[in-house]
Predict the structure.
Amino acid sequence: MKNIQSIQLIEESKEEILPGFTPDFPYIATCAELDKYLEPFTPWHWHRTVELFYIKSGSLEYSTPNGKWVFPAGSGGMVNSNVLHTSRFQRRKDSNIQLLHLFDPTFLSGEHGSRIETKYILPLTTAPGVEMIPLFPEDPAQAEVLQDIKNAFKLSEQEWGYELKLRELLTRIWMKLFELARADMEKSGSKESDEKIKALLVYIHKHLQEEIPVEQLAQTAHMSKRACFRLFQDNLHMTPVEYIRSCRLQKACQMLAQSNVPVTQIAHSCGLGSSSYFGKIFRNKFNCTPLEYRRHWHDCEKNRR
């Protein structure tokens, strides 16, 4: 299991980068040490992989375009393939640790077009009504799945037959999730809105250094300015302007923490204008100056060594 202290996203698309993920074995297990992330949240992102998670300690809030859930320690869930989502831990003072299984659906189904994929995998991964399957220990059926998720983390990679035992256990979990989600799978819906918002996020991150008027953003998706605002509110629960500013500040935080690039250059690279304007909105957001933020994270990095 890999310990991770940050989430890495493809710069242009906001799809998550999965270190160690290979085509011959499309699965990784990670232990996310959330308290060591630069910010108390993961940015909006998606990935083809299915995400099974268990909250070992602390509390984590997940949001998708159509829902919000709070997961305390001992709970968990499944984020479906290609679902746009973000997460935020509740208190930095707590120990916030999340265990995750991330696997491509083909890990269970085998070849594309197989009977297993058609009958058991695609009906769940393509269901518009299934963004998240929350699991809480108070429900006996859900508690059973949570125990299976925990048991899968106990398998040793050095053990003979590890790959087959892991796939067997994940398949068992999948069938139980399939039954839990059956009612939601039957709900009708459209993914057109989902594809549009993802396309706009890709556009924003490709042009983050430039000025991005909402009118221009709307034109790229062939919609009105009003429809663009509604799309962001319905899916990300914020305006386009708020999202763009949030992304620019996230990028600035990464550059401050991970480099010694001058603040003026960071402001320009992130599309945040002059260093004085950058400093103003940074203080409003984080209650400190960019240089104070840099010193804090550079000191944290020294203490870890």
